[in-house]
Amino acid sequence: YGFWDREFPLKKPRNVYRIAVLGDSVMAEGRYPKEIFPRQLERFLNSSRCDAQHRFETMNFGVPGYNTTQEVETFRTKVLKFHPDAVIVTYVLNDPYPYLAISQSGFKHTRVLGYLISRIRLEYFFRVKFSNELENAFTKLYSDHKSWDGVVVRGFDDLEKIAGNAHVPVVVVIFPLIMDFHAPWVNKIHKKVADESLRHGFYTLDLLPSYEKYKLKELRTEGEITHPNKLGHKIAAEQTVEKMKNVWGCKK
Description:
By secondary structure, this protein is of the alpha/beta class. About 45% of the residues lie in helices and about 10% in strands.
């Protein structure tokens, strides 16, 4: 069906618990496809004494450049055909981009943001040259009505209705950028996203507290701030199992 994963039959096998994962390029990671979040999550769930009556199956619907509304449209038009038992939205801080996957024109501040977060060599550039510009760009992105309300809030509104009608629980996992985790503006944006997710009744997991325990160089893919490495994906999978263990019948 053209998505970033192995092929799955539309008809869900018996005794399988299907989890659909929505996301952008963080999920469509070609450098270590067996170690990205959905694959590690599936392995953890199937080896962690979770719901012995079912085998867990994660389906990766990540598309590079997609934002929240595009991911929700994927859920509506594609994912529901596979009869998922749960859906995970992997949220990255650049998700309010207005249709980045379709057009690079966008708004001025989103073009600036795209430039700033593309393959920056952190040790040399980021702390010295780009920290103020990056903060300004993200602040504008999250205060812009067309990006925050038009992309994120609208996407969550639609997902609440669509998933609710299909009786599919929603989990939002917030992935930090691999940068200064303690910057006040970073924490402010994470809280804004988490509060909006909770307002819609979604299970909400913010990975920022877990990532803060590590050094940047331990989590980042070389030269990037948007894509965590294998360890970053592993932490996300472990924390998701911990967050959802009661819902999914997992034991310690």
